[in-house]
Amino acid sequence: MKFYSGKYGKETLESNALVTGLLKYPEISSKLIQQYPQYCLTYFTDGTSRFAKEEIVGDITVKWAIQGRHNRPSTCTGTLVGTGLAGAVFTVEFEENFFNPNDVVRFKGGIQGLVLSEPLPTAGGYTFRMKLMTNDATQVIGAINTAAGLTANTVASAFPEGSERGYENSVFPDWYTNYLGITRKSKTVTGSALTDITWIESNGQKLWYFTAQESTQKEYMYQKELDSWYSTSTMDANGVCQLFDDGGKPIVKGDGLLKQIDSANIDTYNGTLTEKRLTDFLAQLSLNTGRKGNHWMVFTGTAGRVAFHEAMKELVYPDGNLVYDAAVGKDMEIGVNFTSYNALGHRMTLVDCPLFDDPQIHGNDIDPVSGFPKESFRMVFMDWSYEDGQGNVERAIKGAGGIKRSMIMKYIPGMVNPFDQSSMTSANARDGFTVEWLDESAIIVRNPLSCGQLVYA
Q1: Helices 302-316 and 275-289: crossing angle, nearest 10°?
Q2: Band of residue 69 on the pLDDT scale cut at 50, 70, 90
């Protein structure tokens, strides 16, 4: 795709205008966004067509299941009756009812117990009858294994010959609801600016738009990028809007990416990273995914990129012990661009996120040593995997049946009609016309528990 300037004339028809192309073929917006890699989250979602499959017609909500791991631990309440000595029955109370008869449950310390029957509902939760899984008649279970707050989980099942049935361990997923919000921007193009246009050419096809709208279009996309990161919901737990404009109309907004993952894995660092620190953090994230070979896109500012570079340089060239034998009279290029790191069978790839560097937004909190905004150190580890045909990070868009309210752009003619200079009517008396942009969408993170952040301490 290439851009070049031109003049309004006989080739600039309504049929080959960008605004017409976006209306007929919404997928063009994905190609256009690819030209703005600085809006990195938008680039990697909209630009690569990572759109949610859910169709949203008459509602403003998008709801999805967060399954997480398929087996979950149960929490001990501290109520234990019996010791299990010599094959005796003992009982343990748990907060949850996740176990079935013939499940083998592993407690803290490695002690294992066989569930004998369905649980009995009790004051603190659910009480299970068990026997110890052992051939040692002297082995016992005690408070050290079942204290309040400790967890236990199923590691196997054990049945006798001729057993009548098996059991299903069902763990219902958590549900997350987010809300679609509307962003808008407009630009007035004066009659004098009508003649300057910009052409976009890709695969032999050409579309055009008015050059005067370029700066506002970039600003619109930048605000959409900021909204995708920093937006906070205006809806309460019951889905009722809590914010209204002066006219009493509800202002609906959903949570942005950072708000959706703020209760997941978050840790701090002082601006200096080590390879061990990154490996430990990847290990923690991998515990929550339960998958092998996962890929995290790590969005960060300039300060975070510097910290990552220094960590990788120290790993590859400890203490800077690398000697270059410079050949006299020859040009030489020195340096390495560290972009990815592989550990424990996983991979992390650094993504430059310029908005974390923006002093106009983050200028109130500057690191006195480096001079960077502290936000520039933020490293956001986003699980970029696909599961069951769905991306973990996607954009949900209002619309269905080919109609998508994303990257909508339309012209409102004033004294100047961009497509009909001989028109005898106008929508208003302004010497020019207006370009309007509109988007109704929300960013969604299907499993926030597989994501995390390293932030400046």
Answers
A1: 110
A2: low
The residue that leads in pLDDT, 199 or 367, is: 367
Q: Worst-scoring range by mean pLDDT, 44-48, 130-134, 186-190?
A: 44-48
Higher per-residue confidence, 209 vs 382? 382
Per-residue DSSP letter, 238: T
- Whole-number Å distance between alpha carbons of 172 and 456: 36
Q: How much is the average pLDDT of 268-273? A: 92
> Can you tell me the distance from the alpha carbon of 283 to that of 290, in angstroms, rounded to the nearest whole number?
11
Return d(Cα 179, Cα 254) in angstroms, integer: 4
Whether pLDDT at 1 is above 70: no
- Average of pLDDT values for 196-211? 79
Task: Say whether 62 sits in a helix, a strand or coil.
Answer: strand
Q: In the structure encoding, which two tokens stand for residue 324, read together? A: 């270059």
Distance CA 266, CA 423 (A): 59
Indicate the pLDDT class of residue 373, thresholds 50, 70 and 90.
very high
The pLDDT tens digits for 388-441 are: 778 889 998 887 666 778 878 888 999 888 888 778 888 888 888 899 989 999
Task: Catalogue the long-range contacts made by 246-249 (C-beta closer than 8 Å, 24 or more residues apart).
Answer: none
